[in-house]
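Thread title: Can someone regenerate the structure for this chain?

I was given the following input by a collaborator and told the matching structure tokens would be attached. They weren't. Posting the sequence so someone can regenerate them.
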Amino acid sequence: MDDRARLLIADDEELFLLSTADLLRQEGYLVDCAMDGEAALRQLREQRYDLLISDIRMPGNCNLALAQDLPEPNRGLPVILMTGYPSAETAIQAVNLAVLAYLVKPTAFPELLAQVRRGVAQRGLQEIVGGSARRIQAWAEEMGRLARGFDQAPAGPPVQALLGAMLGRMGETLMDMKAMVDLSGGLDSGQQTCRVQSCPRLETYHQIFREGIEILEKTKGAFKSRTLEDLRRRMEGAVTPGGR
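Best answer:
Regenerated them for you:
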């Protein structure tokens, strides 16, 4: 499975559409193209994307229809709006729609690329937050089962299995936190970014990771699980210089 970010460009100016798509492909992105709003909407219904780049004035995009009502599986998709005919009206619409960027043509490619990278990072963060929320919900359900297990019977293999699952959820959540910190640095160039030698955010999740590793280390005798041992090693690698 190709894990590169997939972009959709919707624009009725064929030269701009094809040249921009080629430049973004050279940067490593997967790029699909649409010549009007109807074609773009059809592709948005059929394929999951990481970013939409949309012209404002093109057939099938009345009142910024594409950005206003994105279909599944692209709810919340970051959108870059581009126009050769800027106006106060469309700029206000863009602000109300909370689009990622409103760019006026001709736009220098480095400026567009910077916004594309920011949008892809935002989409990745959305995915991680959503996955983490689902894992935390599962964690809460497992804790409820664990509590009922203690009420109904002495600690035994079923309870141990639940405890092991809880530790696994904790580790997954910590890995999500690391990924969120890594991605959030690319969302806004004005924010504090991590440096190789010193980064307060890195220190924060390093400390959380270390505490999680200590818990896994203390409980490894009670839970003979290869999965938990693999998790412990991954977490150790995340806090070790040069580790992955």
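The CA atoms of residues 14 and 35 lie 7 Å apart.
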